[in-house]
């Protein structure tokens, strides 16, 4: 009887080890010299991280407006979908870094008083890739995000194609120049003034800083270079108020003959939609990591 109980207990421990989930560490603080302020980020480590000696691919995942470095865990249930996808062989074990982008759109402001992108490239990436066993070659580094984070992921990847092999914007908040020019003053002031210029109206809003971060401008530049190709995957709901910009980007990339995958599914702009598309997004990212 004792032997039977011992083996039952052993099997339970084995099962627990096999199906153990990954580890989440929320709101780690990094001191930034560039921003002269701390930056918070959360980390997902795969289940075998503590028991292996291997290094892992990395995904930098950006949040949307009004959210922070905990939102993809709290509302997106990222760790649950990652655990299931890794266990089912859909996605390889990988490390996720979730930084707090505040309302920066993950870029430098027009006066570079809040140079978030400079901090991300020159401080955060080197810091986390030294702190964790991350495979730091481009082919094992992906970037993704939802809403404002989708804009940021696309903008950062297009500005730094030498760093990222895969880019996954979900319901990306991408706007044409015409939309920025005609945007009501209150919305422009609230969301885009720090990126384009405070107090600007009409065509003056299409400043050099806006051209340097706008995906519609960057995609033209990207198409004319010999940069290593980025794997792009877009996903946006058919009832999403941002679907227009995403569809126009799809048409633009087709016109420029830039390979990409584009999905319009039934749904709105919210966490239910992003959760429902997460497994397919993970599969796309994982396929790029496989060799």
What topology does this entry show?
Layout: H1 2-18, E1 23-32, E2 37-45, E3 58-62, H2 71-74, H3 78-87, E4 95-99, H4 116-131, E5 141-146, H5 148-159, E6 166-170, H6 177-182, H7 185-191, H8 193-196, H9 208-213, H10 215-223, E7 231-237, H11 243-255, E8 261-265, H12 271-289
Helix pairs in contact: 3-12, 5-10
Provide an overview of this structure.
By secondary structure, the protein is an alpha/beta fold. It has one domain: Alpha/Beta hydrolase fold, catalytic domain (Rossmann fold), CATH 3.40.50.1820. Helix content is 42%, strand content 18%. The chain contains twelve helices and eight strands. It has helices at residues 2-18, 71-74, 78-87, 116-131, 148-159, 177-182, 185-191, 193-196, 208-213, 215-223, 243-255, 271-289, and strands spanning 23-32, 37-45, 58-62, 95-99, 141-146, 166-170, 231-237, 261-265. Helix 5 (148-159) links the parallel strand 5 (141-146) and strand 6 (166-170).
Write a concise synopsis of the structure shown.
This protein is 42% helix and 18% strand. The protein is of the alpha/beta class and 291 residues long. It has one domain (2-174, 214-289): Alpha/Beta hydrolase fold, catalytic domain (Rossmann fold).
Which tags fit this structure?
eight-stranded mixed beta sheet; alpha/beta; globular; single chain; 42% helix; 291 residues; Rossmann fold
């Amino acid at each position: 009887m004792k032997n039977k109980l011992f083996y039952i207990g052993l099997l339970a421990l084995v099962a627990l080890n096999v199906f153990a989930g990954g580890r989440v560490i929320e709101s780690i603080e990094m001191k930034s010299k560039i921003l002269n302020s701390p930056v918070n980020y959360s980390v997902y480590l795969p289940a075998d991280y503590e028991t292996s000696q291997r290094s892992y691919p990395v995904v930098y995942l950006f949040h949307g407006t009004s959210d922070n470095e905990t939102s993809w865990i709290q509302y997106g249930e990222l760790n649950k979908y990652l655990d299931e996808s890794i266990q089912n062989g859909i996605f390889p074990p990988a490390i996720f870094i979730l930084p707090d982008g505040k309302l920066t759109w993950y870029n430098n402001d027009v006066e570079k008083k809040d140079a978030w992108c400079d901090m991300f490239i020159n401080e955060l990436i080197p810091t986390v890739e030294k702190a964790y066993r991350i495979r730091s070659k481009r082919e094992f580094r992906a970037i993704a995000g939802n809403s404002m984070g989708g804009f940021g992921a696309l903008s950062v990847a297009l500005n730094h194609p030498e760093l990222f092999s895969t880019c996954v914007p979900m319901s990306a908040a991408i706007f044409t120049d015409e939309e920025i020019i005609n945007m009501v003053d209150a919305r422009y002031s609230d969301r885009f003034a720090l990126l384009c210029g405070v107090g600007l109206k009409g065509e003056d809003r299409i400043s050099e800083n806006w051209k340097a971060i706008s995906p519609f401008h960057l995609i033209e530049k990207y198409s004319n270079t010999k940069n290593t190709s980025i794997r792009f995957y877009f996903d946006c709901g058919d009832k999403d108020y941002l679907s227009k910009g995403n569809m126009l980007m799809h048409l633009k990339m087709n016109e420029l003959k830039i390979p990409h995958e584009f999905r319009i599914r039934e749904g709105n702009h919210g966490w239910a939609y992003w959760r429902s598309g997460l497994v397919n997004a993970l599969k796309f990212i994982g396929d790029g990591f496989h060799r």
